[in-house]
Design brief:
single chain, mainly alpha
Length: about 80
């Protein structure tokens, strides 16, 4: 068990050494990193959801009323 743990740890450490790192301010060029970067549409939708949830909370809505309000709020904005 110890040998397996040591071999796995060593493998992970050596595997990460071969990966190029982006300099500060550079955009990631790997497909996985590019997919993880939020798009402006996703950021706008997140901002809408946050604003609608905050408004629903201030109105103290719960259950079906909250769900209906959030649905209408997101469709309207």
């Amino acid at each position: 068990m110890r040998l397996l743990f040591a071999a796995t740890t060593l493998s992970l450490m050596l595997g990460s050494l071969g990966q190029p790192r982006a300099a500060a301010g550079e955009t990631p060029t790997t497909p996985a990193a590019a997919a993880a970067a939020p798009s402006s549409d996703a950021a706008a939708l997140h901002a809408k959801r946050t604003a609608c949830r905050k408004e629903a909370k201030s109105k103290k809505l719960i259950g079906a009323e909250k769900t209906a309000f959030l649905k209408n709020c997101l469709a309207a904005k």
